[in-house]
Amino acid sequence: MFEVRVQADFSAAHFLRDYNGKCENLHGHNYKVYAHVCGSRLNEGGMLLDFSKLKAYLRETCKKLDHTNLNDLKVFAQNPSAERIAMYIYDSIVELAKKDGINLLKEFSEKNGGLAYLKSVDVFETDTSRARYTV
Q1: Mean pLDDT in the chain?
Q2: What is the pTM of this model?
């Protein structure tokens, strides 16, 4: 099995509803995001997936979140936890790749002999606090 990983970051504010503690107040993070792609088969060029494509999908997604109040985005249902942010980024990367004719879903990979698929997205709020969305 092969795995590649790319990184991007963004800065944003948020607050957590239904939470009893300091994070219920508006605050911000410098988020660090990793996207992991796996597969058992390399392409003709000996790569799992071109780093530049994966970086472009991740950076385009993070750019939409950068310098926003995440609570203002409907996709987070007024509660932008790190877990929900990771799922949003995962889904966004899959959709952007699909527009390029690349299917990064695990089910597609399994049916087609181990092609690259998006395995997980990590969202770090701090160096020691991470949420992961994985398939």
Answers
A1: 95
A2: 0.95
